[in-house]
Amino acid sequence: MRYEIRHISVRSTIKFGILAGASVSFLPAIAIAFLALQLIGHALDALANMQHVVIDLPTINLGIGSVDLPTVPVDFVQSFGLGGALSTMQQLHSGGAMVFLLILAVVLVVGSLFTAMPLLGFVMFYNSVAPRGGIAVDLVPRERR
């Protein structure tokens, strides 16, 4: 028997694309969320270490004596205006599991859309040209073994 496919359901294509995209992007989403939490922790450590820096100035020998220069405390976070970034990193770091789940959800949604949208484009194109002649499929009864 020969059949011709004249229409593909847009709704079922979107459902399939979202499900396929979410399943394909699940493991990468876990890895990205984990790496993002690690990055947030390292950025917080770096900003916290920049907050209290002490610069030791050397002793200067003048020939007739030496001058001990004092140590200079410097707050690079305040100097460069990174106080907002430090507080944001502290809030994200304290969020922990919620930040992980949020990043996981965002990556899953993006992965689902990156799979569903090309499929939707293909179905829209196919449905527009299928009335002029769609894909022909030959169906043959299967023999029982």
Using DSSP, what is the number of strands? 6
Tell me about the largest β-sheet: 2 strands, antiparallel
Q: Treating each run of at least 4 consecutive H or I residues as one helix, how many helices? A: 5
| Helicity range | 55-70%
Q: Could you tell me the mean pLDDT?
A: 90
Low-confidence segments, ≥5 residues, pLDDT <50? none
Biggest sheet strand line-up: 1-6
Characterization of the model:
The protein is α+β, with helices and mostly antiparallel strands and 145 residues long. The protein is 63% helix and 14% strand. It contains 5 helices and 6 strands, in the order βααββββαααβ. The chain has helices spanning 10-24, 26-51, 76-79, 83-95, 97-129, and strands at 2-5, 53-55, 59-61, 66-68, 72-74, 135-138. The strands form 3 sheets. Strands 1-6 form a two-stranded antiparallel ribbon. α2 crosses α4 (83-95) and α2 packs across α5. It is rod-shaped and about 110 Å long. The model has no long low-confidence stretch (mean pLDDT 90).
Blueprint of the fold:
Blueprint lengths: L1 E4 L4 H15 L1 H26 L1 E3 L3 E3 L4 E3 L3 E3 L1 H4 L3 H13 L1 H33 L5 E4 L7
Antiparallel strand pairs: 1-6, 2-5, 3-4
What key attributes describe this structure?
two-stranded antiparallel ribbon, about 15% strand, about 140 residues, rod-shaped, alpha+beta
Quick summary of this structure?
The chain is α+β, with helices and mostly antiparallel strands and 145 residues long.
